[in-house]
Design goal:
Layout (H helix, E strand, L loop, with lengths): L18 H20 L4 H5 L13 H8 L2 E5 L9 H4 L14 H5 L9 E6 L5 E4 H5 L5 E8 L4 E11 H8 L7 E6 L21 E5 H4 L5 E6 L2 E2 L9 E3 L12 E7 L6 H5 L23 E4 L9 E3 L7 H4 L13
Parallel strand pairs: 1-4, 2-11, 5-12
Antiparallel strand pairs: 2-3, 4-5, 5-8, 6-7, 6-11, 8-9, 8-10, 12-13
The chain binds ligand MTE.
Ligand MTE binds next to loops.
Length: about 325
């Protein structure tokens, strides 16, 4: 992962959206969502000036149907601006498409996401091959605005659209032997140029995992959209994990396999560099990466003269919600 050393500076006043203004916009969008979705246009792009630059998308029918019933603003962040769509979609990590931040946007249009089949296996009562629409069919689509903190010390605020991972898991009925959930990304080199380079040290497919109680936490999300539209390919279409209190590398993209397992799974970054990237990967300003501090982060967008650096919060600001998951654990050892 690339590294940049952040510098201290204050958050710009212009980047803060007062909550009342935000909520008013939400109410407006709730009304606007139906008509815009019916017109096949991204609702939020039409209704909210902060979503300027959102590219229209041809969403699958199941997505448009769910969008009409979406629960907007189910989770929000206070007084922090949403990252502009062009930044969230052109500054990405998705190594299957290449190592540079611009590679995913450049190459991910090659990815074919329909049909999309997810294999469910392991310690589970309902194993099988599920289409994405079957997997999310019973769950309500929620907009959740989360901070995203990359282990490389940059961060964004993203309005995801997704379904609760806990709901999805419950419907699959894992057995009591399931202690962890293992996720796997699609590995299709003919559509993923980053897999063909030979320079990559990654042992494909990209794998991530969560302890079962982490996966069942109400904040854990399976995202199928963002900014009021279907997920762009470079952000992990058609479905990805979002775990907002952990470093971004836990939020695995383009998932094709969900396995319920007894043992802690070997995950991609931990397997490659265990002294640098742990299984837990909880955002923690007090535990430095061996090569850089995690005390601060660069909130995107920034510029050379205004790098927009801020203090990193414990558990990325979700301490109240998730700290109990790690009671009694030494977070310096379990980084
Ligand atoms: N998932 C896969 N399959 N491949 C990847 O390279 N990168 C991770 C994560 N999920 C990655 C992945 C990292 S390091 C980060 S920070 C986030 O995706 C970035 O998500 P974004 O590009 O949507 O901001």
């Amino acid at each position: 992962m690339l590294i940049r050393t952040p510098r201290r500076s204050d958050c710009l006043e212009s980047e803060v959206t007062p909550e009342a203004l935000y909520l008013n916009r939400r109410r407006f969008m709730q009304g606007a969502a139906f008509s815009a979705a019916a017109a096949g246009l991204p609702a939020i792009a039409q209704a909210d000036p902060r979503y300027a630059g959102v590219e229209p998308a041809n969403a699958p029918v199941w997505f448009d149907e769910k969008l009409r019933q979406a629960n907007w603003g189910a989770v929000t962040v206070k007084n922090e601006a949403i990252t502009p769509y062009p930044d969230a979609t052109h500054y990405n990590n998705f190594y299957e498409f290449g190592p540079d931040k611009g590679d995913p946007a450049r190459h991910a249009s090659q990815l074919v996401t329909e049909p999309w089949v997810v294999t469910v296996d392991g310690e589970v009562a309902k194993p099988g091959k599920y289409s994405i629409e079957d997997l999310v069919s019973d769950a309500a689509l929620e907009e959740r605005i989360y901070r995203l903190r990359c282990v490389e010390a940059w961060s964004m605020v993203i309005p995801w659209l997704g379904v609760s991972l806990a709901d999805l898991i419950s419907r699959l009925e894992p057995t009591t032997d399931a202690k962890y959930v293992r996720f796997e990304t699609l590995a299709r080199p003919e559509q993923m140029p980053g897999m063909r380079t030979g320079f990559s040290l990654i042992d494909w497919p990209y794998v991530e995992g969560l302890r079962m109680d982490e996966a069942m936490h109400p904040l854990s999300l399976i995202a199928v959209g963002m900014y009021g539209r279907v997920l762009p390919n470079q952000n992990g279409a058609p479905m990805r994990l979002v775990v907002p209190w952990k470093y971004g590398f836990k939020s695995i993209k383009s998932i094709v396999r969900i396995s319920f397992v007894r043992e802690q799974p070997a995950t991609t970054w931990e397997s490659m560099a265990p002294q640098e990237y742990g299984f837990y990967a909880n955002v923690n300003p007090n535990v430095s990466h061996p090569r850089w501090s995690q005390a601060r982060e660069r909130r995107l967008p920034g510029s050379l003269f205004s790098p927009n650096v801020r203090e990193t919060q414990m558990f990325n600001g979700y301490k109240e919600e998730v700290a109990h998951l790690y009671t009694g654990m030494d977070l310096r050892k379990n980084y």
